[in-house]
Amino acid sequence: METPTEINSMSNGMTEAMQDFQAGMGMMKREAGDTMQAFGSFMEKVLEDDVLDTKTKELIALGMAITARCKYCIGIHVQKVLKAGGTHAEIIEVCKVAILMGGGPAMTYIAEVHNALETFESSR
Asked: How many CB atoms lie within 10 A of CB 62?
C-alpha cells in the first residue's frame, strides 16, 4: 500500500482519462462522423442558455455524472462548470446532492471530482 506521500506524488489520472476520452471520440468522429456531429449539435443546443443558464445545466450534468459513476463525464462537466463561471463551492454543493441521491456508490466517485478539480482549477 502506498503512503500518503507516494499517493500525492502520483498522477491523479484525470489528465489520462481525458486523453483516453478524446482518443475514443476521435475514433468515433472518423468512423461515425454523421452520428457524432448530430449528437454534438444536440448537446450544444441542450446546454446553451435558455430557461436555465449553461452553468446551471452543467452543474446538473455533473451531479448526474456522479450518480452515473462516469469518471469521464465527471471530468468533462467539472471542466465545463468552471469554464461557465462555476465555483469550487458550487461543485461541492453538487457533490452533496449527488451523494444524497446516489448514496455510497456516488460518494466514492467524489474522488474523481477531486481529481478533476485539481486538474482543471489549476489551469484557469
From this structure: 28
Share of the chain above pLDDT 90, in %: 85
Q: What is the pTM of this model?
A: 0.85
- Would 7 be classed as within a structural domain? no
Q: Say if 35 falls within a structural domain.
A: yes
Domain ranges, residue 111? 14-121
Q: Is 4 exposed, middle or buried (0-12, 13-18, 19+ CB in 10 A)?
A: exposed
pLDDT tens, residue by residue, 34-74: 999 999 999 999 999 999 999 999 999 999 999 999 999 99
- Grid-cell match 450544444, residue found: 44
DSSP string over 66-111:
HHHT-HHHHHHHHHHHHHTT--HHHHHHHHHHHHHHHHHHHHHTHH
